Amino acid sequence: MAGRRVVVFPSSAELGPVLAQLVTSRAEKAITSHGRFTLGLSGGSLVSMLGKELPALPDLDCSKWVVGFCDERLVPFDDPESTYGLYKGQLFSKVNIPDSGILTIDSSLPVNECAEDYTRKLKEVFPGDSFPVFDLLLLGMGPDGHTCSLFPDHPLLEETKKIVAPISDSPKPPPQRVTMTFPVVNSARCVAFVSTGGSKAPVLKEVLEGREGPAYPAARVVPTNGELFWLVDDPAAASLTIQVERLGSGAKL
Ligand SMILES: O=C1O[C@H](COP(=O)(O)O)[C@@H](O)[C@H](O)[C@H]1O
């Protein structure tokens, strides 16, 4: 791992613009080095933050972006729980990512086939790699320490072969989902968690400062060769005792 950076902002209002800057700086670097930018998106609170910050950037050009989903809920795209559906309304409709560059699940399939179909789509985009190497993955973390749809104590935490796994018993609704596995997450060139709000404070402390017993899913995100950022706000960071960086909205990562 290139080193973990824990960066604390006064609030999500200051965090958002720096997250957008991180995305565009890694996009520029990737396009210069290999002609395209591969980005994995998570759902939850990230959707509205990215939907607010990215379209507001002047001259944002997403024509060379390829976007996948770190996890997705198996519901129709017009269901309010659909991560793709939410991004479509709040982000994709406002920026110029080509439709062919948005890797969606086929939500009409049963969950196992949906995971296989999404695996095939990822393999087409990353031919030759045993696990896809995304330029940037944006992750969230639930108050239970889950990330993607990798939940505490679930057998999927031990998955080492699959790129995408189905889950039918998600403790957080909806129960059927597909998720990238840890080998994919930990192969990325850069991973950034975004965690805001006081409800995340207890688990953030456990994840970043360690605890007895099995590691929370979010604590298992340790990119083999990539960068790892934790971008958090003051309420989420309230219980931390480790050294952190404190930045404001004009910062560059
Ligand atoms: O269910 C999910 O939750 C996590 C965390 O969401 P947040 O709203 O607490 O940030 C999210 O990262 C994941 O993509 C989603 O499916």
Write the layout of secondary structure elements.
Blueprint: E1 4-9, H1 12-34, E2 37-41, H2 46-53, E3 65-69, E4 71-73, H3 83-92, H4 111-125, E5 136-139, E6 164-167, E7 177-180, H5 182-185, E8 190-195, H6 201-209, E9 227-233, H7 234-237, E10 245-246
Parallel strand pairs: 1-9, 1-10, 2-3, 2-5, 5-8, 8-9
Antiparallel strand pairs: 4-7, 6-7
Helix pairs in contact: 1-2, 2-3
The site of the ligand O=C1O[C@H](COP(=O)(O)O)[C@@H](O)[C@H](O)[C@H]1O has 12 residues, from loops.
Enzyme class: hydrolase
Protein name: 6-phosphogluconolactonase
Catalytic activity: 6-phospho-D-glucono-1,5-lactone + H2O = 6-phospho-D-gluconate + H(+)
What attributes does this structure have?
253 residues; alpha/beta; seven-stranded parallel β-sheet; three-stranded antiparallel β-sheet; 7 helices; binds ligand LXAUTJHC; 6-phosphogluconolactonase
- Widest beta sheet: strand line-up: 3-2-5-8-9-1-10
Task: Provide the list of bound ligands, each named once.
Answer: the ligand O=C1O[C@H](COP(=O)(O)O)[C@@H](O)[C@H](O)[C@H]1O
Share of β-strand residues: 15-25%
**Termini separation:** 17 Å
- The overall average pLDDT, rounded, is 96
Question: Which residues form runs of ≥5 with pLDDT under 50?
Answer: none
Largest sheet: 7 strands, parallel
Order of helices and strands: EHEHEEHHEEEHEHEHE
Helix content: 25-40%
Rg, please? 17 Å
Shape: globular
The strand count comes to: 10
**Structure classification:** alpha/beta
- How would you name the oligomeric state of the polypeptide chains in this document? single chain
Q: Please, how many helices?
A: 7
